[in-house]
Amino acid sequence: MRGAARAAGGRTGQLWPRPPAPGPGPPPLLLLLAVLLGGAGAQYSSDLCSWKGSGLTHEAHRKEVEQVYLRCSAGTVEWMYPTGALIVNLRPNTFLPSRHLTLCIKPLRGSSGANIYLEKTGELKLLVRDGDLGPGQAPCFSFEQGGLFVEATPQQDISRRTTGFQYELTSRHAGPDLHTLSAPCRPCSHTEVLLAVCTSDFEKHLCPRQFVRGSIQDVTHEPAQQESAIHLNVSRLYRQKSRVFQPAPEGEGGGWRGRVSTLLECGVRPGRGEFLFTGHMHFGEAWLGCAPRFKDFQRMYRDAEERGLNPCEIGTE
């Protein structure tokens, strides 16, 4: 098995007889009870962030529940030839209490062979159904709400099946439906704007933020993904992550060019003037946060400065 080392002492978990083909496997709750009552095999990531394993290591006539332990704020899980079930235990090295953390997952392209559940104290809530890779499949939930339980679905041929997903911890809040991060399709308050540009180094690591000054060049809509892409001309680059904004080609007036995403339902349209665009990285893509007109941001910044309430200092000219 690549990317994982078996726990000392070998596998100690409850073993399940394989049902006669092509009948259904044990219900996910029964597999989960196997862990609670009898333990499970443990898999440890070699880099503590990502794990890659194979169901072919199981004995041919048995099913198992494996334990996977990860300690990073972002990474990937890939399970080739899935059989039985996985419990993914995230133990991130963070200082924030778990009630302030949100966990998001995003299935990898072509992922198949297993259902992904949210599990807490034996109760399961389906997050991603096997093969359902449509738009919006990036569920998010409070870290306190439970962990991840991944159960292989009955297959006559697992030779081409791989279940995989990215995971990401953030300090942003999950929406009430467990399937989105809270989306600000509304004007941001003065406090929200100032906090978006004044973020501690630790929070920047956990929820990398962007903020730039610029104008909207164009907006394109992607109805299939329920997203809109905002193409920006950036005149001042305050902070960015992953080189979202690149220097403009020669002859195009200087500055930087780049794009940020937002929900289609926000109805963003091109507008004149300069804005302060704030946002965050989500699975490698820049997403829009707040976007006040720059002159409005200057006014709120000066007002907070006069009252001694500015959490940081930035150039506003």
TrEMBL record:
One BP term from GO: positive regulation of brown fat cell differentiation
Cellular localisation: Secreted
Main location: secreted
Signal peptide residues on this chain, from the entry's feature table: 1-42
Molecular-function GO term, any one: hormone activity
The keyword Secreted is annotated on this UniProt entry: yes
Segments of this protein annotated with the region Disordered: 1-21
Gene Ontology terms: cellular component: extracellular space
Domain of life according to the entry: Eukaryota
Keywords: Disulfide bond, Hormone, Secreted, Signal
Entry-linked InterPro entries: Meteorin-like
Family the entry assigns: Belongs to the meteorin family.
Protein name per UniProt: Meteorin-like protein
